[in-house]
Amino acid sequence: MKLISVEKLENWYPLNFEKNLKGRRILFxxxxxxxxxxxxxxxKEVIGYSENETPIYKISIGIxxxxxxxxxQMHGNESTGTKALFDLFNFFENPTxxxxxVAQIILSNCTLQFIVLLNPDGAVKFTRENTDNVDxxxxxxxxxxxxxxxxxxTLDSFNPxxxxxxxxxxxxxxVEGTKNPATISxxxxxxDLERTLTEGRKETMSVIVAMNELLQQCIPNQVxxxxxxxxxxxxxxxxxxxxxxxxxxxxxxxxxxxxREITRKFxxxxxxxxxxxxxxxxxxxxxxxxxxxxxxxxxxxxxxYKRMKRVKDGLAVVEDIGIQYKFxxxxxxxxxxxxxxxxxxxxxxxxxxxxxxxKLNFNELKLSNS
Length: 370
Fold this sequence. Notes:
Layout: H1 6-16, H2 28-37, E1 43-49, E2 55-61, E3 66-71, H3 80-93, H4 100-109, E4 110-116, H5 120-125, H6 146-158, E5 162-168, E6 174-175, E7 184-187, H7 199-216, E8 223-225, H8 235-241, E9 245-251, H9 261-280, E10 296-297, E11 303-312, E12 315-330, E13 333-344, E14 354-356
Helix pairs in contact: 3-9, 4-9, 7-9
């Protein structure tokens, strides 16, 4: 298996990542200057407009026979993949000497297309849904949303062998059997209710195996795997069923990285390794290690207040309080706030921030749903 050198990536990345994109809320106004500044190596075209008439761009590069389609921010509040894609564009713009061969192999063997920021209206509101409250990732069959139609039209006209479906996941997810957050999670979607292990799924899994092997060198025991329950209306499941091997990447939490700037780096590493593997692998038969990637669990919290005294339903109780951070747009700025996720005996949960709360006043925590 061909793996890119992590040591070389660690040297390249801090000097070359896209520094003009940062934070959780990435808007069309953030990416359009970067799109316009892409060199002639890239083809740039507007494939349509969102419900609120914001342009949706497709970026293309490469001349090879293997076609790969990637898209980001089909959920407007999941921007880590968008940042990682622009890091990838910088890689092709400036691979530097140690990566020239990697870039050449990819671009000579593959044609890459990217839809960056599929849901610009949701990005403004910082919501999963588009402006009409349609979840694009559950709109693959009905295709009620303009954005869903554009994605499907691109898929049908391009006919890719592989797809990368880029998302973000909440910090509640940990790697099963560990106290670690699931910093990156993968899924090879099912094609039917029986979760049949088709040849397409095996090929998808083999790419994920390569990405996981690279990431284990960087973030050991912080890579998880989603359940492969079949969702009849989901994008990845339907694209996989249509014969387009679809790799779901979920960007998650890293210690104290609420802007997802560290996670974006590992997201970029995974995407680059996945594309490189597709471009260079003689076969896609090494799928069985996929099942050794631990499942995602939901036992990680942003803060755990231990043994908090408070009045609950008219009674004095002592319990643990688990907090998840959530986000909302206020005065056109993204704000992070604390929200109760769960309460009770939270000894099975883990967190980077566990606080002895025996002497704390519950009312002073300023929780949004207290």
